[in-house]
Amino acid sequence: MKEVFRNIINILIFRNLSINQKILFFSLGSLFWLLLISSISLLTIFKMSLMSEQMVEEIVPQEKATNSVIRKLRGANISVHKIIIYNDQDSINANYSRAKERLQDCKNFLNALLNGGTVVDYSIITDLLIDRFSVYPLQNVNSRKLVEDVISRIEHLDNILDEIKSERLNKNNLNSLLEKVSYYDVTTSESIKILNQNLLNILNEWRIFEEKMYEKFNFSVLIISSVFLITALLSGAFGFLISQSLRKSVTEITDQFKKLHSGDIDLTKKLTVYSKDELGQLTTEFNKFMDALSGLSSFKKIIEEDDTIDDVYMRLARIFSEELKFDSFIIYEVSNSTNTMKVIFPKEAEGLQLYCSRDILLDCQLCRVNRTAHLISSAAYPNICKYFIEDKDVIHFCLPIITEGNVGGVVQFICAKREECDLEEFEKKIKKAMRYIQEAQPVIEAKRLMKALKESSFKDALTGLYNRRFLEESFENIVAGILRRGTILGLLMCDIDFFKQINDVYGHDTGDVVLKEIGNNIKNSVRASDLVIRFGGEEFLVLLIDSKEGNSIEIAEKIRKRIEDIKIKITGGFIQKTISIGVSEFPVDTQNFWEAIKFADVALYKAKEMGRNRVIRFTQDMWTEENY
Question: Which of 110, 211, 340, 467 shows its CA 20 to 30 Å from the CA of 95?
Fold first, then answer.
């Protein structure tokens, strides 16, 4: 029941209509009630005017006809008296005719009152038209009886008039004539009284009509006032409800924006959608915005807690594939120091055909995004990048990842062929991807900086090789891996023969050149998974990861021979140096990592004792101490 009532309210206040439609329907509703009030008012005025007009057309002619009869009866009475007064026959006949005509007019007028008709009143003296009007029949029964009574009396007067004339011409007994005249006067007077009564009846009907009109007027005013009150209440109620529904949404959105500005906001809290109008759509879009903001905020918080840059890249890749639903994309990392690029995602992409020429991996300046540091799209310009080697009709977007003011990475999104790509939808996803990239940029920059700082603390500044601190931090993981996999760790302790003579003869600068060159050649003589460490001074330690027993001697000999053969360019010419190497194996020679290093160092000193430029494998007879 409550739900039904809510639905009815929603319909009445146009909740699910647009704001324009709300205003339109509210205006139409107000106009309807205004027209209703106006119509009632106009109908009432028209009806009252019509009734008044009808009443005037009915009462006034009846009143005029009655007054005319009274006037003519009195005129006839005067003429009768003149018949008595005048002695000459012409005067008697003339007054008789006037009285006769007036009595006839009275009968005609009274018949018009009974049956309806037109009253035409001429002057008996001048024979000119005095008045002409239509008369409606009397409806009042009592009035009709009074008129009928007067008609019979006038007919009686007409007979008396004939007798008076006859006796006057014959000069009969004067007393008898006077009696007839007296009787005529009495009858005339009674007729006039009856007509006056009829006038009172007519006036009474007018009064009754006025009372009815007053009642109708009051009733109409009541109806109009009631409709006006209802209109005001409905307009006020609907206006209040509509304004409340609008105000509530606006207030909530405003409050959320204030909280967003102050930073005191719960990004997971959703606003209630109260309607389907523009404010409802605004609320829905605001909720989507908050979801996106919440997602971006959560994303940034998560990647800030990730260990490495690779973790950040992988998380970006999951966002692109799982949330944004990109089917095909590649993430490159740019190394400005080496002027190269490498594929970060997908990992297997290095073994597959990329969308771009692999030349960009060797020279990152060939990449248009890396040069321009802004988005590159083939949507508008199909041949925008000459290193894009796929079908030129395939649409691609390349976005830069900016770190430290330079391009630190590139994300390439592939849509499809131009006729198959939903470009509008794809560009929407690109914009969302850009927001995630923007959130990730400062984190990637910070982690790259931390990685650089960490690497700088673990690497020798002169040779670029790992230093002794790196070994101290990493040996436990190295040892654990060797033991877990059941393999061997070969340890080669290398020392440059007669290095002090170089510093003494050529100077320390030349000594540094020799150290760097020999360090690079040692590194290039082993696998990428092996570790080369500047152990101190002119000593280098090589860790051969997952080696085979006895294989360390072969690698050491390879290094020795390579160093013996190289010519190091120095100021004024070239120099050649040799190297002595001591070899031990973990855990073959010992279960202690640092003891294994000591054993390699012992073997190194044995090589120097035996004449230098040689490789010596540690044996137990070389170690005579109880503790290393």
Answer: 110
pLDDT of the residue at 445: 76
* 187 closest CA partner among 73, 270, 278: 73
* Cα gap 74→78, rounded to integer Å: 6
Q: Which CATH class is domain 308-456?
A: alpha beta
498: left (phi over 0), alpha (psi -120 to 50) or beta: left
Q: Is the dihedral of CA 569, 570, 572, 574 positive or negative?
A: negative
Q: For residues 300 and 297, give the distance between their C-alpha atoms in angstroms, rounded to a whole number.
A: 5
What tokens does 194 get?
Answer: 């009856």
Query: What is the per-residue pLDDT for 5?
Result: 58
Decide if 488 contacts 586 (C-beta within 8 A).
yes
pTM of the model: 0.47
Token pair of 89 as six digits? 């026959």
Q: What is the mean pLDDT of residues 314-324?
A: 84
CA-wise closest residue to 361 among 377, 346, 342, 389:
342
Question: Over the chain, what is the mean pLDDT?
Answer: 81
Distances (CA, A) of 434 to 6, 298, 401, 427: 43, 16, 9, 10
Q: What is the CATH number of domain 58-212?
A: 1.20.120.1730
The Cβ of residue 184 has, within 10 Å, a number of other Cβ atoms equal to: 21
Report how far apart, in Å, the C-alpha atoms of 363 and of each of 334, 335, 338, 493, 524 are: 10, 10, 9, 36, 22
In tens, the pLDDT along 207-245 reads 877 787 777 778 777 877 777 777 777 777 666 666 666
Mean pLDDT, residues 474-493: 90
Q: For the residues 89-113, what does the mean pLDDT come to?
A: 89
Report yes or no: 282 and 290 within 8 Å, Cβ to Cβ: no
Identity (one letter) of the amino acid at 379? A
**Alpha-carbon distance values, 122 to 132, 155, 187, 195 (Å):** 9, 21, 25, 21
Rounded to 5 degrees, what are φ and ψ at 335? -110, 105
d(CA 2, CA 320): 45
DSSP string of 107-133, one letter each residue = HHHHHHHHH-EEEEEE-TTT--EEEEE
Q: Which pair of structure tokens corresponds to residue 47?
A: 């009806």
Which residue would you say has higher pLDDT here, 14 or 515? Answer: 515
Lookup: tokens for 392: 């030129």
Query: In this predicted structure, what is the pLDDT of residue 20?
Result: 66
**127 Cβ neighbours under 8 A, 6+ residues apart:** none
**Beta strand residue intervals within 510-592, DSSP E:** 531-536, 539-547, 568-570, 573-575, 579-586
- Coil, strand or helix: which one is 530? coil
463 phi/psi in degrees, rounded to 5: -95, -20
50-64, 141-155, 280-294: range with highest mean pLDDT: 141-155
Contact yes or no for 494/580 (Cβ under 8 A): yes
Tell me how far apart the alpha carbons of residues 401 and 316 are, in angstroms, rounded to a whole number: 12
- Name the amino acid, one letter, at 492: L
Structure tokens at 66: 């009655």
pLDDT classification of 368: cutoffs 50, 70, 90: confident
For domain 459-622, the CATH architecture is 2-Layer Sandwich (3.30)
- Number of other residues whose CB lies within 10 A of the CB of residue 201: 18
Residue 370 has a pLDDT of 84
